Amino acid sequence: MKKNGFSRDFMLVVIGQIISLFGNAVVRFALPLHLLNISQSPTLYGMVSALAFLPLLIMSPLGGVIADRVNKRNIMVVLDFSTAGIILLFLLLSGQVNLVALILVALILLYSISGLYQPSVQASMPFLVPEEKLVQANAVINTVSSLAGLLGPVLGGIFYSMKGIHVVLAISMVCFFLSAVMEIFIRIPFTKRETDMGAFRIIFGDLKESVHFIAKSQKVIGKVTVIIAFVNLFISSLLIIGLPVLCTQVLEFQKADPNQMYGYLSGIMAFGGIAGGISAGILGGKIKIGDTWKLIVAVALLMFPMGGVLYSSAPDMGKYLVLAAGAFLIMLCATLFTVQTMSFVQMKTPGHLIGKVISWVMAIATCSQPLGQAVYGVVFEQARGLEWAIFMTAGIASIFVGLYLRKIWISEGILDSGTEAVSGAYK
Length: 427
Hints:
Oligomer: single chain
Largest sheet: none
Distance between the termini: 22 Å
């Protein structure tokens, strides 16, 4: 470990993440948008997005078991090579099979891999950085994710408008291949756990142990995870479905391509994530875990000016700018919230359970997102002209979610004890 910085292996993880997440951002931006453009149906867009997301919920717990049983570096390498292969297969089959089915299968496979992949990245952090740098390390990873999310949609939107879907996918395929090559050189401490049990008994036993930890030993982790699920239901799903629909079917841009405008909007959101990650890294332990409920309330309140401008008679470009500003601030607050809660979970969890517990947190927290995407797809198609009311309703619901999180922190004695900062004292 470097005295005044991060280790070589952590930096290699960061570089690999930059390349891999950029490719991920490009392909997750391009494929659903391509489907919306060719179908012009928000309902179909929402349903396909929801169905594609379901494997992430199933694979995340399995990914946690694998992350605690297999060398995390090897998992990253194999999965990035596999992703590159899936995209290559999509390009070869494009034009020969039904496009909607091909996009759905491709997204299902990509989300399945993501469910296996992300627990390994998150579970490797405590092995690569000391505890006092854990919040900063998570902030770096979140900033990298936001940076990739900034460049991916912006460049993806430009290339998609100019060159089409095939060029965009070819770029992302190269990114995954390069990331896999980079990750080969990472060294993550790993001790093989000896067992004479079969694979099924190992998986079942590990999952049972992690569920018991969340449900019995550290109930607060389960409660916070449910809070994240509700935020994903009301806010994340709304942005994922609503913003591309608004850009491509509601707002009118006189001289700009709607796909590029949505790409820019996605980039602005990612820039908000970068700002949030940088803020979390700078503030570090000064941010108090008990204050995270205020971040959710802040996100909820941002829904009201976004809904208000959609209701107004403002020019469409003015509406777009207000939506962009709101999305930027939402992502800033959301990233601060994510860094704090993920660090909280990591510090509360023993090393041999980190991968499995984080995978359950990710699975439970995101289980509401497919439901939200499917519902919002139908709502945006059936309630044309009432988009403002959708944002307002989501804001009201999210205020109650934030207040409930405050109640959780009070019941845990965190607010009563002075709202301590995230630190090793939680472990």
